[in-house]
Specification:
It is a single chain. By secondary structure, the chain is an alpha+beta fold. The chain has one domain (about 5-140): Sandwich (Jelly Rolls), CATH 2.60.120. It has helices spanning about 20-30, 60-70, 90-100; strands at about 5-10, 15-20, 35-45, 50-55, 100-105, 110, 115-125, 130-140. The strands form two sheets. It has a five-stranded antiparallel beta sheet with strand order 1-8-3-5-6, with helices on one face. A three-stranded antiparallel beta sheet has the order 2-7-4. The chain is elongated and about 55 Å long.
């Protein structure tokens, strides 16, 4: 019989950048290890950060991603929305481009990433604060 688990977790505040959060998520949602087969859905409850799956081995990938995201949505542009400061509207643009949710298969109690993949919080604000995620697990328990 399929099982469902859902919870809200909180990630510690991080500076602007691309941050590997896979291990943090596994610590906060250990029930993943109990699923034989299933899906893990991660939804970020914010509009100025995003979630992404990308390479977890070479830090240069994260550096390059951050560099090019800054070029796509620079703080110096003439935005109409500036209520929360110069880094806010660029953060919204980056969040729309990358997205706020990802789904990862679970196989034998493990997130079924490829050999080089990991889950990232893309923090687009200089001081974004703690970030909340809703994690939903569905599948068959071991």
């Amino acid at each position: 019989m399929p099982q469902w688990i859902q919870r809200q977790i909180v990630l510690a505040e991080r500076p602007r950048g691309i941050h590997l959060i896979t291990d943090d998520l596994l610590r906060q949602v250990p029930e993943i290890y109990d699923f034989q087969i299933g899906l893990a859905h991660f939804f970020l409850q914010h509009t100025s950060a995003s979630l992404a799956i990308n390479e977890r081995v070479d830090d240069d990938v994260r550096t390059d991603l951050e560099h090019y995201l800054k070029a796509l949505a620079p703080e110096e542009a003439a935005y109409t929305h500036s209520y929360e400061g110069p880094d806010d509207m660029p953060a919204h643009i980056k969040s729309v481009l990358i997205g706020a949710e990802v789904t990862v298969p679970i196989s034998n109690g493990r997130l079924s990433f490829g050999a080089w993949q990991g889950l990232y919080l893309c923090e687009h604000r200089n001081h974004g604060g703690r970030r909340r995620l809703i994690v939903t697990l569905q599948g068959e328990l071991t």
